[in-house]
Every structure is written in structure tokens, then in C-alpha cells.
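Repro case for the chain-ordering regression, as requested:
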Amino acid sequence: MKDFSIRKISNYGFFIIIFGSVISTLVLIVLFFRLENIKEDLSVIQNTHKSFLQLKNNTERLLTTSDIKNSHYLLLKSARKFDKKLDNLKLEYISEIDNLWYVCQKEITKIDEILNHIIFNAKNIKDKPLLHRRGELFMNNSSNDFYILLSEVTNSIEYLIQNETFILNLFNDLNEKHKLQEQNKLKNTKYFVLFFPLIILTFTILLAIFISRTAKKIETDMIEKEQILFQQSKMASMGEMIGNIAHQWRQPIAIISMWANNIIADIDMDEVENENLRKYAININDQTKHLSSTIDDFRNFFIPNKEKKIFEIERCIKKTMNLLTASFNIHNIEVITDIDNVEVSGLENELTQSILNIIKNAKDILVMLPDDSRRLLFIRVYKKKNNAIVEIKDNGGGVSKNIINKIFEPYFTTKHKSQGTGIGLYMTETIITKHFNGHVVVKNVTYNYDSVEYRGALFTVKIPLEDKK
Amino acid sequence: MKFKRIISYITSIALLLTFIGCSEKKEDTKVQKDTITVIVPKLGGKLIRGAILEEAKKFEEKTGTRIRVVTPSWIDTINKINESLNDPKINFDMFVIITSWGGSLLGENQVAVVPDWVKKRIDWDDVLPVYKNNILTWGNKTYALPYDGDCINLYYRKDVFKNKNNQKNFLKEFGYKLTPPKTWKNYEDIAKFFNGWDWDGDGKVEYGIAGSRLKGYGSVLQFFTRAAAYAKHPDDKAYYFDIDTMKARINNEGFIKALEDYISVMKYGPKEILNFSPSDVRKSFISGDVVMAIDWANMGTMAANSEISVVRDKVGYAELPGYDKVFNSKTNSWDNIYNSPSSISGNWTILVNKNSKQQKLAFEFAAHMTSKKLTSKLITLGWTGVNPSRYSHFKDLSAWADSGFSQSSAKEYLGVISKSLSNKNVMIDIRIPGSSQYYDTLSYGINLALKGEVSPSEALNSVVIKWEGITESLNRDNQIRLYKKSLNK
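-- result from build under test --
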């Protein structure tokens, strides 16, 4: 659970950082190309704008110049040039200018026609600007037709100038808008260049903090969970131990009862002798000491050790056996031990608990064997390459292949709910790996004992020994 | 699960940032603001268009919109409007036009009916009924907004008329007292009397009259204004055409006599009178060059507050002269009754294009231009060319005094306009499709007659032939229907 969560967080975090980097690169590329496009657009607009200004100047000059012929030519030339330039503009801009330019073109055609007529009758112009000549003709009734014609052309030029002014305003707006657009895009790009890596960095930091906190929380949760499991495990053991105590106590209590009855019988038969009474009392006393010792054993098992110390593994085995002897006797389980003197450092009760869990597990399997079968439990403790090895082997037939890899997982049990909690072997594995830095493995083995071949599970606990230097 | 959710949020934010970074905002490519194009002709000075140009700027600043005002010449305006009706690439959202031009637009069903919210905004009840009934409605529906309330009257030099020597000499020469002319005959006599001598002692020779004679609408409207006394029968609402046949009446004896007199009186004006547009007439009168002029109400305000005016408080106002008989088109004979119709020809109204993509904006601006508040200011300023069209315009004399009128002068000025507007025999413009063609051909014919190239009867007979052709080409029955509609019949 713990490993999975951190892995998941790390994977997602990594994905986001990569994703963010790719996205930011893409956005930068797009922004860059867009800026390029805007610059290109702006250049086209400025060129067209420039061409339009030439046209407008020529139109305005037409009203005030004396050289009407040349100005007329320049007007037509600049109109053609602007028309061509307009084709380079993007359609979206043209559509706004197009209608106005259409009106201008119509007016230019009209002006062209009238000017051709006027220039043809050059005597009427007399090298004077159109407005000037019109003023002169106003005062002369005899030139009424030509006055009207001049009025018509000057009015058309003025109308053309009006429409050109609208186009000019549009160009100004376009320029303004594009410059603004360029500035905005530049600003956006700048912000983006600063902002996006900052987001990624912030996210990375947040992610690190998040992972660290989550890991810590998971660790705390795990410790709490382990403590609960320890407690659950002990409680489970306690239930079983109470049964064992009952078995352990039954014999001494029966003996005490027997000696007490002997005392009562001697009294009843008036055969009380001090020597006998002393013998009875000594026997009762021995039995109560045994009872007391049993209680101490159980109590010591359940009292949590707070301090690490060096202890012999044999003590743990003995304690376990003391707790289970009665039960083993009832179920005819033979325990064959081969225990070397090996010392390890740690919490004695925890190792006792670990060994107890394995042995209990073996016992639970063995009791299921037919009554006529031998029920064997081998316990071997030895030292190997600076490791303490504890081997516990039974002849229960071994662990099914399907479950052999899962038996150290929490809440995994093959037993009925009333019998197993599924946390015993998990606790053993946790204690051995976390608290003793060792490990525990299980495998099925076939072996001979008393010339008979048996098959069973072999649990091997390997605990590294501390350097005594 | 929670973590997955966080991851998906972060991914979404990253994608959103990407899209924002890469997205191209739509408005970035939109160059222009909400824009309307207003067409208003260029008259002399800043008349009519000046106030629109000024107010357009203020309106733009206030609303963040764009108001394009195009001002073609008088002659070009209606042509450009007509052109726009047939060319989808030319669009005008708002038309500021003289009454007669509305005919083409209304006949072609190109004008939006004025909505009630606009009427409410411009205080519709304040508008004079003479304009509501004759100018702003068509087929009994309101299509036009009252920018300018026109009324043509006579303006004369009161100071010169009062001069005892002048009175004595006039009486001696013509056998009757020198008073504002009651008939066009009187008008010509007075013009003759004051023509060609320095009657104001400024060392320059002055003239009898100034009148618009330049080829174009101004001159045509002035002609029809004069001809009304000869041919606009008080019992007949129709003037230009027979209402049932659309047969043109303009070559009847009444119109021919009117044109003869219209030409005849020119000899008592400045030598350049043939090139006079209405604004030249005003300049001439307020510069003190002529003793009388026939003009719209603009003359009164220009005389009072134009910088070049030398006639402030020297102007008298009178209703249009009449004629001592009137031609009855129905009986084809003269009726010997004194006829003195008024003329509300040439009103400037505002119409909104029915097909405008910015119709609301166009109406907003139209309502602004025709509001009671704005027009009350504009009518007192001569350069605007805007004249009274509302009850309220005649009530507040202080506004007129502020613009240069003396109290008595303002009272007299408004009194004459008011009297003219209450005349039951009113001459209005042609308001049917083809009106510009009718006016153009008449303008051409009159110009020939004014130049002396053809006689008045020849000119009008040839115009009638052309008018018949126009009527036929536009479908006579339809024209009959629309002519009746234009008269709200």
C-alpha cells in the first residue's frame, strides 16, 4: 500500500512535469510563430498604408495644383498601385476596407472622366487650380456649364477625400491594433516564459512536499497499524495461551488436590503424622511454585519490552515451548530440538512472539493430520556466517504452491475465522525484517526421520548477528 | 482517487493555459467599432451637415461607436442614395435628406418605420402637425424624423423700406405704397425699384433681389415655391400631377406664367445670379447687396448671428407673396381669387435604412439629432440650417435673443413662420419614387430657360414629355397609388 501510493504519486508528478514542459515548449513555439505572423501582417499593412497615403496625397493635390494633367496621371497610377497592394492584405481586413475602396474607385472613375473632358478643353483651365478656376467662373454667367462641371469634379474629389479619410482611419486603427496585438503577444510570451517554468517549479516543490508528507503520514499510519496488529496478534495469542494455561495448570492443580485429599484422609483416619504433612505441604508448595512459574512465563510474554538487549535464542524457544507444551502434549506433537547457543540483540519478547507464531502455525497444521500419524516439529537454532538461523520444520505436508507466496501478507489465512486472524505470519515477517533486520522465508521440504520420509514446511529465520567488536 | 482528481485538475489547468497562450482572440481581428454611415449633402457653408458632423464626434465619444458622415454634393446625394439601393457594396444606414428624396426610398420600401421608443425619446407630441401630416408620414405611417422644419418666406430690408425717400419715390413710380409685397407683381416692382443703385449709402451698387438659380434642387424648389401662388389651387391637394392620372401639370398656364416671372425678375439681381445656390442667396442678402430674398428660415438666423451679417436687426419678415388669380387644373382655367399658399418645401428629415445592420444605432443617433433639446439649440444658429419644427421652438424667445435676435425681431420672425405654417394651402415636395428624376429633368429644363436657350413654355413642355416617360417607366398605376399615398390620401 505504502510503496504503491508513493510510486503512484511519483509517477503522476513525473508525468505532469514532462507534460508541462512539453506544453510550455509547444506554447512558446506557437507564440513565436504568431509573433512572426503579426510582424508579417504589420509589414503588409504598413506597405499598403504607405501606398494609400500616396494616393490620398495625390487626391488632395488635385484640388490645389495647377498641373492638373500630371496630378490626374499620378492619381490614377497611385490608385492602381494601391489596388494591387490591397490584394496582399488578409481577407478579414480587406472586407472592412473593400466597400469603402469600391466607393472610392467609382468616384475615381467619375473624376477621371470629367478630368479627361476638362483637360481636353485645356483653355478652360488656364493653368489654374480647380478650386481657383471654379471661383472665377462663379462670377461669370456665360460659363455656367463649365462652372457646373468644375463644381461636379471638385465635389467628387471632396467626396473621394472623405471616403479616403475613412479608409485612412481604418488603416490607423489597423496599425494601432496590430501594434497593440504585437505588444500584447510579446508581453504574453514574456509572462509565459517566466510564468510557466515557475508553475512547473512550484508544482515540483509542492509535489516534493506532498510526497514527503504523504510518505510520513503513510509511515505513521503503518506504525499505528502495526501496533494495532501487534495488539491484535497478542490478543489472539492470549486467547490461545489461556487455553494453554488451563492445560498447564490442570496437572499441578490435580496434584495439589491429591495432596490436599491425602491430608484430609489422614485427618479423617486419625493418621496424621508430621512427617507426612510436611511431605504433602512440600509437594503442594512445589506445585504452587510451578503454577507461579507458569504465570510468570505468560506474564513476561505479554509485558512489552522497551529496551533492546542481547539474549539467547534458546530462551525464546524455551519460553515458547513452556507456553505450548500442554497443548503439544494433548495433540501428541513431538518436538525435536537441536539448539545451539546463539545470542542476538533486540526485544526478546518480539522474537519469542515471532517464533511462537511460526510454531503455532505448524501446530495448527499438525493437529489436522490423522490421529495415527506422527506429528513432528523440528526446531533448530544455529549460527551461520555471522547470522543466527532458526529453522522450524513440520511434517504437515507443506504449503500449497498457490498460497506459498502470500502467507506473509496481512490478513491472509487458510483457517476458519474462529481459528486464525491472518496476521500471525505477517507479524513474524514484520518483526524479523524491521526490528531484527533479518528475513524469514518458507519452503516445502521432504526429509527422512527415523527412516521414514516426511514432507512439510520449513520456515527459516535469518537474523544478522551484531559485531561484538 | 483524490490524487487522481488533483492530477486531472492540474492537467486541465495546464491545457487551459496552453489554449489561452495559443488562442487568438476574435476581437483582435475586428478592426472597426459598431459603425454607421450617414449620408447628408454638402450645402453652402456648414448648413445641415455641420451640426451632424459635430454631433457625430460627440456621439462617438459618448457611445464608443463610429459615425461616418459622407457629404456628397447636392446633385450627387440622391444619385448616390439611388445607387446604394441597387448596389449591395454601397450602404448608408441613415439618410439626412430633403423631403422629396424620401420618395424614392419610401416607394422602394427601403425605410424603417420610426419605432415608438424613438418617438417617445424625441417628444413626438411637440412636433408641429403640419410636418407630421405632410412631411414625416407616408401612407399614414411615420418614417421620417424632424431634423429641420422648413418654411419659405420673404426677407426684406426693413430699414430701407422704412426710408421716407424710398417710400416717396416708390409711390411716385408705382402708384402704391412701399410695403412688403403681397403679390409677385409687387415683388418684381420693388426689385426693380431698388436695383442698380446705392440705396444704403455704402458706396456700392446694390440690387433688388437675390434668388437661387443655379442648376439643381435649390432653384427648382424655389421655382415651385413661387409657382404655387399661380398653380397650387387651395381646393386641390395635388400640385404637380393629376392625382388620378399622374398627368403632369407643370406646363399649364399657371406654371408657364410662374417661370416667365421667375426668369424676368432675375434682371433685378446681381449679374452672377445664375450661379446662385440658396447659400449664395443668403450671403448676398446678409452682406447687404440685395433688398429682398426668398428663402428658408435660415435667412433669419444667419442675418441675426452670422459673422458676415451687416443686416442684424434690419430685416423684415413676410409671408410669401401671392398672385391675384390661380390656375385651376381641373377646369383648365384661371380662377380670379387671391392665392397665397405657403411652402414647406425642402424640409430636412432623417430616415433610417430598413436594411441597416446597425438599425438600432442609426435610430439612436437619429433620435439624438432630432431631439427637442438639440434642435432647440440648433434652430437659433444660422450656420446649422436647422429651422423650427416644434411648438416649443416658438415659445422660448430668450434662446433666440441669445443667438443675436432682438426680442421684437425674434417675435416677428417666429410670428411670420408660425403664420405660414398655419396656412391651409400648403405646397409640399414630390415624395414618390422617381422624384429625383422629375426634379433633375425640370432642373435641366429650367436651366435652359434661365440661360435663354429655350422659352419657358418650350422648356416646360419638353420637361412634361420627359416626366411622362419617367411615370411610364416607373409604372403609371403604381405611381398614381404612391402619389396618393404621399399625400396621405
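Ordering looks correct now. The longest strand of chain A covers residues 452-464.
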